[in-house]
Write a structure and sequence with these properties.
Helices cover 55% and strands 8% of the residues. The protein has 671 residues and is mainly alpha-helical. The strands form six sheets. The protein has a three-stranded antiparallel β-sheet with strand order 3-11-10, with no helix packed on it. Helix 4 (82-101) packs antiparallel against helix 5 (107-120), helix 5 (107-120) runs antiparallel to helix 6 (124-134) and helix 12 crosses helix 14.
Length: 671
């Protein structure tokens, strides 16, 4: 009886013999068949040409090919349910890997498969990073080019969907409505890359009205404001310990008054007795009452605890021989036996449970910050990379590296939360604007073209070490060009945040080189980036202003003068108290623009009139003064050969005339 094992062995032997026979046949044909050899050579050359063609394609050729492929794949219907998306994703990735293993001939179709897998993946940015690390360079270039073409197509529809109608503004290209300068006059040398767009009102506003409010995409505190008194996430001011102590004391005072009310009622019948007792007994009762109140105050101060101790200098009627120095850092507060809530950083601040350096105004801010970025930037992590990264950014005197690190952390976190909400069915109906990711919003912003520096390379390398374990492929995705592009977007679009709270003057080590749109003379608390407000253009004669009425990084655009429907909103990027030359110099150095607003033009015309009149006045002054000087003195040579002045004799009439001339000259000089 033939067993299964015997059949398997026989089958394996047969396959091996067949394989060896084919190898022998192939070798025989290759050696003896001329046509067969030519066919092999043609196939090999064809594959080499295909590989060379794919690798040598110019950027324009790749974009054209990507556009053709995109027009093909968008006709394919994508699954909608989570289960179908998962199966579709696995099938597309498997097919793409098989095509890549087949060689350059399959790269084009492989790019299409990887692109389709990208369309259903919950976190596209993460998958792009994986693609860059695992797929051939030619395939990755095609996938990225297809994404770029899709972005361009979405961008053509972007400004129809964003901003949403409830913001009462729209983004328009001024070149298309006849009010622009083709994007070249203001941005010389094409250094600012994007069309000449601006933000326009969709309805009329009176002066002092709020057009819209907007949350920040990413923000951070300035170094001078990182003193434990401002929230590291929303930049809100947190009351200090002494302020909180006074609040607690004020809260305790009404309770003391309520406790004293029954005593006053009880003392009412004693008022008649005091009249009979006399003056001496009244003094005794008053002294007893004072002692009782003092005892009550001591008990209340013991109950208040550290808050009352912190506010000892501000509370009257307390005898303190020596004031203890209040801890200034968290470490000093811990050594003094204080909890984070009672440290000098803030009375109500919540600190990071690990580093105890970052402070927050609420539990929500602390949790959002940790989920988004603080888990990477926390200096108390087991690795020293976070502290090394912070040290590099401090030495570079830039906030851009911190903002970029926060941006990528928040970007991944927001996409994950969106997908989770969709999976749980709590996302709600998505609007057309919701179809755009934060990165796609960022792609539509204008930016300054910058040159990479040596510090950029070190910071970028450390940034990859910091976040690569949680954001796979970040090192490959954030190249030097992308990093400098992000810095350019931050430099051109970031706003200075003013919460109305005084900030300590920045020391030499705390001065930063980052550019911020700031029309205030006072120091800012932090800097933030916004999706809508980034599209507002500059004017030294603005009709709107950025305000932060909630005391956080939430921005509100407020009108300074009446704004008509379809009128462009403009804010000032620089301090308007500066003169025209200083403003133009700052605008040129920071934003590479030359302002031609009515205010600057009027100042130019006034300057020209002054330049014409000044030489005339000087000439007239010289004509009047020279004869008077000649009449008053003569130059003579003394005995020692030195030139001296000899005064001539002057009559009374001549003296009076000279006095009148001098008075006239003084009046002319004053005029």
């Amino acid at each position: 009886m033939v067993t299964g094992k015997t059949i398997a062995i026989a089958t394996a032997v047969t396959a091996a013999v067949a394989g060896l026979s084919y190898v022998a046949y192939f070798d025989y044909k290759r050696r003896n068949d001329r046509q067969f050899r030519r066919k092999l050579q043609r196939n090999r050359k064809k594959a080499e040409k295909t590989a060379q063609k794919v690798s040598s394609l110019s950027l324009d050729d790749i974009n054209d090919q990507a556009l053709e492929l995109l027009n093909i794949v968008i006709k394919e219907k994508l699954p909608e349910s989570a289960e179908d998306k998962e199966q579709f994703f696995l099938a597309q990735v498997s097919r793409g890997e098989t095509l890549c293993s087949a060689g350059p001939a399959g790269y084009t179709e492989a790019a299409c498969r990887f692109y389709q897998a990208l369309m259903v993946y919950p976190n596209p940015v993460e998958l792009v990073m994986i693609y860059q690390k695992t797929t051939p360079e030619e395939v990755f270039k095609l996938v990225m080019a297809m994404m770029a073409q899709e972005v361009r197509q979405k961008q053509s529809r972007y400004f129809d969907a964003f901003p949403t109608a409830d913001k009462f503004v729209s983004i328009k290209d001024k070149n298309k409505i006849g009010g622009g300068n083709k994007g070249k006059k203001a941005e010389e040398g094409k250094e600012v890359v994007t069309p000449n767009r601006g933000l326009f009102a969709t309805k009329s506003f009176e002066a002092g009205e709020i057009v819209y409010e907007e949350d920040a995409v990413v923000s951070t505190l300035l170094p001078c404001a990182q003193n434990g008194q401002f929230c590291y996430h929303c930049l809100k001011h947190i009351p200090e310990t002494k302020d909180r102590a006074e609040e607690v004391q004020n809260e305790a005072e009404p309770a003391e008054k309520i406790a004293e009310e029954p005593v006053e009622d009880a003392e009412e019948p004693k008022a008649e007795e005091t009249e009979e007792k006399g003056d001496e007994e009244e003094k005794i009762d008053e002294e007893k009452a004072d002692e009782e109140e003092k005892i009550d105050e001591d008990k209340a101060s013991e109950e208040i605890g550290t808050y009352a101790e912190a506010a000892a200098a501000a509370i009257p009627a307390t005898d303190v021989d020596e004031e203890e120095e209040e801890p200034k850092t968290y470490a000093e507060a811990i050594s003094a036996g204080l909890t984070p809530e009672f440290s000098a950083k803030s009375s109500s601040a919540l600190t990071c449970d690990k580093c105890h350096e970052a402070v927050y105004c609420s539990e929500k801010c602390r949790q959002d910050a940790y989920d988004g970025y603080h888990q990477f930037l926390c200096p108390s992590s087991t690795s020293s990379t976070a502290r090394e990264f912070a040290l590099l950014t401090q030495q570079s005197h830039e906030l851009a590296p911190i903002l970029i690190a926060k941006f990528f952390g928040l970007l991944v976190d927001r996409e994950k939360k969106k997908e989770l909400a969709r999976a749980l069915g709590i996302a709600g109906e998505a609007t057309e604007a919701d179809k755009y990711t934060t990165w796609e919003h960022l792609e539509c912003m204008r930016y300054l073209e910058l040159l990479p520096t040596t510090s950029d390379a070190r910071i970028l390398r450390k940034l990859g070490e910091l976040m690569s374990h949680s954001v796979p492929g970040l090192v490959e995705f954030v190249t030097s060009d992308r990093y400098t592009m992000l810095k350019g977007k931050l430099d051109y679009n970031a706003y200075a945040v003013h919460t109305g709270v005084d900030v300590p003057t920045a020391s030499e080590s705390e001065i930063i080189s980052d550019t911020m749109r700031d029309d205030h003379g006072a120091s800012a608390v932090g800097t933030a980036l916004y999706l809508i407000s980034s599209h507002i253009a500059h004017s030294c004669d603005p009709n709107a202003q950025a305000v932060f009425s909630e005391g956080t990084d939430k921005i509100a655009i407020k009108t300074l003068k009446p704004v008509a429907k379809d009128e462009e909103l403009r804010v000032s990027f620089v301090d308007l108290s500066l003169g025209k030359e200083d403003r133009q110099r700052l605008l040129k150095a920071s934003y590479r623009i030359t302002c031609t607003c009515p205010k600057c033009e009027s100042e130019v015309s006034e300057k020209k009139e002054e330049v014409v009149e000044e030489p005339v006045a000087e000439v007239e002054k010289e004509v009047v003064e020279e004869p008077a000087v000649e009449e008053e003195s003569e130059e003579v040579v003394g005995e020692d050969g030195e030139i001296t002045e000899e005064e001539g004799e002057v009559t009374d009439d001549e003296a009076s005339e000279n006095d009148e001339d001098e008075e006239e000259e003084e009046e002319e000089e004053e005029e």
